[in-house]
Specification:
Length: 432
């Protein structure tokens, strides 16, 4: 949404600031900071998260000015379509032409796109998705940090390596450890958005979780997403009051029978009620599902995308199912990379304007070129794992997670170089 380079405030009206990035205007809620025109700020997810000094801002802006427009040019050139982007398949060509004019594919058309087999047709779908991404979102790429504060979990999801019956070795970070890890990500590496993640009923009481969120908010200028499972309406309210403004909660699959089968004792409606209640409270929503779950059909995947959109997701989070040896689904295969890309690009065609689309760590675990491939197939978001190395491998929802052994410095360096090579600008990672 916004470049996390500094923006200048042009006006403030009823709790909303009009801010400008090199002349490009955006709106941002300023409930956390008192602002006047001429102030410089960092904004994130539609919120102003920090006011900074003019000296600091101008120094950063000077360093960014040329790079900013240079990166945009690289991206615009690579996303442009030409005469080679025309299919002789008239059905496909029609769907893509309409999608590029913002006519959303019907369910049948979406299914048709997911079922395409030949490489050339699939490439054309991805190229159209990339074109739409560039048209609506320019070259911005969100880079959220994710901090996995506990792998304790009361649920027994059939695919998950940290489910209650998986026999996983458990950890729970102390408040001091959490503050130290958040501080490193925010102060040293410039993250402006953090997702705090754990299993469900993760070994902290609600009061402790509230204290964690409030302590981070008190110490650091950051937009906090919570991802503690179905925390309950009371939990959502209290965590909002503590300062969190986003919720990451996947519904996993839109197929109610499959949901029930894979999540013993739980049901899809309760999950969806949660997501809807959170949206009503004002949370930014990140949600989505698993790609290639055993028992899920392509039609289920189309429904997953439609459901994500109807939940007002500001970010789509779809990643491949990866078999974990200590789960019931150990023997089932992961989906092919092209199926993952098919879902990302279809999501972009169906929700061109609004969606941030995440290239997930699960996809990165499936393919070493996931980020590059995903970002040129409609994706415009990545996450960097800021969990301390000593805990990182214990959060093994699936085996051999990408970046499991990399320091935060290595991950940030790699992510920035990769984005630069594609002409993308990181939007949640500051430039300090
Ligand atoms: N493969 C891929 N993703 C998984 N998750 C859990 N287990 C797996 C797996 N085996 C995902 C779920 C959950 C998120 C935190 O991790 O979708 O929502």
């Amino acid at each position: 949404m916004c470049y996390t380079i500094p923006a200048i405030v042009e006006g403030v009206h009823k709790g909303k600031a009009t801010i400008s990035y090199f002349g490009e205007r955006k709106e941002a809620i300023c409930e956390f900071v008192h602002l006047s025109p001429g102030d410089y700020v960092y904004a994130q997810g539609g919120y102003v998260v920090e006011k900074i000094s003019p000296v600091q801002a101008q120094k950063t802006l000077k360093a960014w000015k040329d790079v900013f427009f240079e990166l945009r040019k690289i991206d615009a050139v690579s996303a442009a379509l030409d005469s080679s982007d025309i299919s002789s398949n008239r059905i496909l060509q029609g769907i893509l032409e309409r999608a590029r004019k913002n006519i959303i594919p019907s369910k049948e058309e979406a299914l048709y796109l997911l079922n395409l087999e030949d490489a050339q047709s699939r490439l054309l779908v991805r190229r159209s998705a990339n074109y739409l991404r560039q048209q609506y979102h320019n070259n911005s790429c969100c880079v959220h940090g994710i901090l996995e504060i506990s792998n304790i979990c009361a649920r027994d999801c059939g695919y998950c390596g940290i489910s209650s019956s998986s026999g996983a070795v458990r950890y729970r970070m102390s408040l001091d450890e959490i503050i130290a890890a958040a501080g490193e990500a925010i102060n040293k590496f410039g993250f402006k958005s953090l997702v705090l993640q754990s299993g469900e009923e993760c070994g902290y009481s609600l009061d402790e979780l509230v204290n964690i969120v409030a302590s981070i908010k008190k110490k650091f200028p950051v937009l906090i997403f919570i991802s503690f499972g179905e925390i309950g309406i009371k939990g959502l309210k209290q965590l909002y009051a503590a300062g969190s403004r986003g919720l990451l909660l996947r519904f996993e699959t839109s197929n109610p029978a499959l949901y029930k089968k894979l999540h013993p004792g739980c049901n899809l409606d309760s999950r969806l009620d949660h997501l809807r209640a959170a949206y009503e409270m004002g949370y930014l929503i990140i949600t989505g599902g698993l790609i290639g779950l055993p028992g899920a059909t392509k039609e289920d995947l189309v429904n997953d995308i439609i459901l994500t959109s109807s939940l007002h997701a500001e970010m789509f989070s779809f990643g491949p199912f990866l078999p974990h040896p200590s789960t019931l689904l150990a023997a089932f295969p992961a989906p092919a990379e092209q199926d993952v890309l098919g879902v990302l690009s279809l999501a972009r065609l169906m929700c061109a304007e609004k969606a941030k689309i995440l290239v997930t760590t699960a996809y990165e675990t499936l393919s070493s070129s996931a980020r590059q491939n995903g970002l040129i197939a409609g994706g415009n978001s990545i996450m960097v794992n800021v969990t301390p190395l000593k805990y990182r491998s214990l959060y093994n929802i699936y085996p051999h997670r990408a970046h499991e052994d990399e320091t935060l410095a290595q991950q940030v360096r790699q992510a920035l170089a990769m984005l630069k090579s594609l002409g993308r600008g990181p939007t949640d990672l500051g430039s300090n």
